[in-house]
Amino acid sequence: MNSQWGKKFKISVFGESHGDAIGVVIGGLPAGFEPDFTEVRRELQRRAPGQSDNATPRREADEFEILSGMLDGRTTGAPLMALCRNTDVRSRDYERHLPRPGHADLAAAIKYGGFNDYRGGGHFSGRLTAPVVFAGALARQLLRNAHGIEISADIIEIRGERSPDKFDDIISAARMAGDSVGGIIECRVRGAPAGWGEPIFHSVESSVSALLFSIPAVKGVEFGDGFALARRLGSEVSDGITVDNNGEIAFLANHNGGINGGITNGAELVFRAAIKPTPTISIPQKTVDLRTNEPVTHSFTGRHDPCIVPRAVPIVEAVAAIALAQYL
Amino acid sequence: MNSQWGKKFKISVFGESHGDAIGVVIGGLPAGFEPDFTEVRRELQRRAPGQSDNATPRREADEFEILSGMLDGRTTGAPLMALCRNTDVRSRDYERHLPRPGHADLAAAIKYGGFNDYRGGGHFSGRLTAPVVFAGALARQLLRNAHGIEISADIIEIRGERSPDKFDDIISAARMAGDSVGGIIECRVRGAPAGWGEPIFHSVESSVSALLFSIPAVKGVEFGDGFALARRLGSEVSDGITVDNNGEIAFLANHNGGINGGITNGAELVFRAAIKPTPTISIPQKTVDLRTNEPVTHSFTGRHDPCIVPRAVPIVEAVAAIALAQYL
Amino acid sequence: MNSQWGKKFKISVFGESHGDAIGVVIGGLPAGFEPDFTEVRRELQRRAPGQSDNATPRREADEFEILSGMLDGRTTGAPLMALCRNTDVRSRDYERHLPRPGHADLAAAIKYGGFNDYRGGGHFSGRLTAPVVFAGALARQLLRNAHGIEISADIIEIRGERSPDKFDDIISAARMAGDSVGGIIECRVRGAPAGWGEPIFHSVESSVSALLFSIPAVKGVEFGDGFALARRLGSEVSDGITVDNNGEIAFLANHNGGINGGITNGAELVFRAAIKPTPTISIPQKTVDLRTNEPVTHSFTGRHDPCIVPRAVPIVEAVAAIALAQYL
Amino acid sequence: MNSQWGKKFKISVFGESHGDAIGVVIGGLPAGFEPDFTEVRRELQRRAPGQSDNATPRREADEFEILSGMLDGRTTGAPLMALCRNTDVRSRDYERHLPRPGHADLAAAIKYGGFNDYRGGGHFSGRLTAPVVFAGALARQLLRNAHGIEISADIIEIRGERSPDKFDDIISAARMAGDSVGGIIECRVRGAPAGWGEPIFHSVESSVSALLFSIPAVKGVEFGDGFALARRLGSEVSDGITVDNNGEIAFLANHNGGINGGITNGAELVFRAAIKPTPTISIPQKTVDLRTNEPVTHSFTGRHDPCIVPRAVPIVEAVAAIALAQYL
Prior knowledge:
Strand content of chain A: 15-25%
Shape of chain A: globular
CATH superfamily of chain A: Chorismate synthase AroC
Strand order of the largest sheet of chain A: 1-2-3-7-4
Oligomer: homotetramer
Number of helices of chain A: 6
Order of helices and strands of chain A: EEEHEEEEHHEHEHEEEEEEEEH
CATH architecture of chain A: 4-Layer Sandwich
């Protein structure tokens, strides 16, 4: 298992949910870059648990300490290592012999012969998205500095509901029922120049989707109109090309989400990720006691969000930034 | 641009739609493997144009010649190179200065400073999926030999219609209108053992989606219930774990499409790809004459399918096989 | 086995000595580059067999056909595939059951379970350096165009003799005795800018040496004074830094061969490769008949150079160019 | 800059000589492996400074703390992160504006625009070999467990002298003269099975040499008889093949150091690395004051070994182990 990604902006993530620490080594940062750590902390805070009644009561400071790659507030060009010690760990909530349906527990136990760190999902935990958000926060600053690129994601659906006014109520209801809900996040990237990406295997869609699917609970990804495109006529979804008032090439529509043939075309990038409901719910579920190989019904009681969609918003932005930073 | 993919089963694709040839170098094949080339040709035939009234009238024999990596009918362990000369090329159908909306033409012209091979889409053409199908056909034989794995994809929607009886009519209607339609392909993989894939960046979903998005016209990918999962309660989509009659671990449902935490869990793999309508239609579209920078309305008249979904079915199977062959 | 190298200038080599063809797919070429194929052919000619009485009598035209990646004499940005059909193949010279000492025959038979193409060394053959020279010829043109970089290699020793006047006599004597000799090639690169390479694992020395050791028969590599450095005092081999008449940083010596800490320092790059004597000689050698597992003494009679050092000179230049093209 | 290496056994090194910490993330470790940390510490101790009168007086505990990837004394399959805080750092010994001849100082200043951490060589420092030795110590345990492989390196020359009895005297003399000496290390690997490595670009020689040249001060690498091979007749260096008393294939000589065609042949692996004299000596050297661009003569007075060859021995063994662990 090697949790590394990227060819230019290269990240190597480590740690476990209930281990000593989590962190990331970032390679490929330019020398002389002066990160805005206030913004980095703000991004981490958006992802952090314990911020609302509807989120998991686990509280993590998510304070990353930078142990290499910087000198006098600037990057040196050497790998930057950021470390975050875990606190508030309650391992007794987890039991190795009862794999949680919908979680990696069973697949990981088989893959690693039972030696994986099962506590809180171990290396599979959503907690590992914190170092990803850290790295993404640096990537988005590089993108902004170089091209004025802005990335922003929003929840567009919770449990099928599209009115934001109702999101909190739906989540609260799920929480009170001991149940969970999912939703859909839409991300838009403004300012990416035309010509990024490669044909065939290294299309922008390939890179962005690979990273989106690395976020736990993402089960669907679409670009532009996505699945809806498959239900339209070609003539209805033509992204006509024109010339704007400045004599620049422009588009009359953006059904393709800013990507043609795997390459950015200069239009806004638009993509969506479908997040499934948190599989850990207190409503009893069927599982198997791995000690006895007997089916059991169990109520899983760890501290969990009834809906991780709000916390996934900054993660979607982070992976978008990491994917695009490859093209700098 | 390097059209390479894979770490173990490694492919390097080359060629252009209207160039001399297309082909693929395949690395990582085991020595002593005796490919069934009758089956390979059958897969290529499924993808080939010119098979029905509804498909492009371009006819390509798609006969690949193997120039390295085999001796006496068996792989040697050295890279296998398969070459297919292009025939029936009519470049005059394409005009460099009129980028087709929804195609890579404009993005590629910007990326490559106008030096890209624009004829028929060049290296961006769907024709490059032929070597991918060739490689995929070998990969699926390896998967079958090693684990009895079977991969099969089907069209489940054309222009939103789910009844297969109506697919031909919808496509014919589009063709007669000079228009095009898209659809959705579902792929199922039986027999993949539990424990394949890696947590975080190299999840099975990441690998499969990266390859699916390398197929031209794919704009959405989902696993298991995918986007529909985002609209359900956690309690409704619990893939309960149980023990079957043989005392083996089994699942009571498969909303997650056989993958948890990025790792196969032993259940059937299920995923879907959304294919957009072919952007080349004879209904006039808005574009810009790159010689004059003037907007024009143009009817693009190349030989094109009104619906590439049927031809994409074997391609989806091929990339699924290539993605999974990494885990052998 | 995947004979690929490179991250930016990416090559994928295929073919066998006595198979149908050899060739290379080159990714990462910039679009719009107009290669000088007269120069490419000249480089190939320098490497080609059959040029002197002292070289193998096998004659190969080594004419590469370019089947993708070019349009109207310029690169398109898509992968360039160059193919060379084999001619003048006499497989009966080789016998699978008698592994040649010092060759890959035995190791390959074990690695590939006897399925490797043993004819003339198959994929292990020095013939595979022809596509490497092809790729290197393009790389050196890119380096020259971008930075005026010039690469040139020379034989500095044959069988320990340093006077070039005597090289031919030594080789002739070896040929007449049915024996073989090796030698040392020195390569110098002028014009590489300071700052290329990475600390630690991706040092210029690491990259160049990895490629030099991919040339069959290379058994030693050194940079600057190399092994001789290990025998001197630090004070004797200090590459003092100064300022030249133009006010530019300059060096008072170049014991380090233009590389410090894995990074080019702007001085000339200097390195050497030791080439062993050709292991195929007609003087009888001890081997084992793999059919009977009995020791035998055998005289190997294939058409072979008594000294491959002269033909290796353009190969050393080629791999130097390929290694450095990564930094463009 | 990304200090990562490996495809299976994957390491990502970070840190600076005079920064907060150094460390390594190791991916690809099997789950359930129980490392012997007593042995790891012993390897680190062999590399550590401050062990003899002849070594640098800097003292580092080199105690690595493991922050991820282990549970109950066994690896979990997740990335293992090992961290070592720096102590006894005296940055005032280093001056940014006076680049040390033979060091990366000048090349790094150019490469990173002056933003690199110059203190003690920063990320270029030999101190970064400590995490490499840590990773290598795990790799050699894996090799021993899997195949009984044993790796051992020895000094065979100091300043050209081959008698070990005189090594200490030579080093002492250099130290007293404010000078430095280099030497040659030979490494032998017993037990590597036949068939490891790939033809052409991923030969065992390519991998091992790439890693050896990542050790600061290594300027030459040779396999088997290496450069001496280039001075012999083919008939003199034939590694005849025979059958031993157990009916197993064996070799009558090992001039090729256990590697043919880039593939291990089952014989002992033998290779050597040439280590240059430490460039930091107190004898005055010529350099340039980068503030004034004026040539100056300067005596560099940091705490340095007059000969790093003894400390490089465990590093050579470590990189050999890391290179070979790719084939497990």
